[in-house]
């Protein structure tokens, strides 16, 4: 854990590490000690290719390790990888599974992702009520994309009934 704290402190204080290699090495040491936060961070480095060769397979590997420990951000990122087919075969059902785990922990991005999947019927039967439910949870946390999708759904006749039913349910509970 001290390795991760060192990297995070330097990055948050905007002090410079001598190079990305040193930051990567410290983060890798923490990740090898099974620290989920560091594993997720390492996945992010491999995903972006910042300081290392971009490698989606490695990103998935590290996201998976952190996700298996219950890290909501890693679960969301793993869901995105499956949703987009980056480093893994595209698999909407697997994406849905990881988005759900993350969303259940309150991750706004995962809640939005679930909304999209239910809205479009990706890996699940299309369900506008369920889409609206997840968009509302995400929007409540300030997710602008979820807010836009809710506004759009409220203005289109096809979705209006489901939208207002969900809004009514929320006002009662």
CATH architecture of the largest domain: Alpha Horseshoe
Treating each run of at least 4 consecutive H or I residues as one helix, how many helices?
10
> What Rg do the Cα atoms give?
18 Å
Shape: elongated
Largest sheet: none
The arrangement of helices and strands along the chain is: HHHHHHHHHH
Show unreliable segments: none
Oligomer state equals: single chain
User: How big a fraction of the residues is strand?
Assistant: under 5%
DSSP summary, beta strand count: 0
Into how many domains do the coordinates divide? 2
The CATH superfamily of the largest domain turns out to be Tetratricopeptide repeat domain
Residues in helix, %? over 70%
CATH fold title of the largest domain? Serine Threonine Protein Phosphatase 5, Tetratricopeptide repeat
Roughly how many Å apart are the termini?
42 Å
Judged by helices, strands and strand pairing, the structural class is: mainly alpha
Nearest-integer average pLDDT: 87
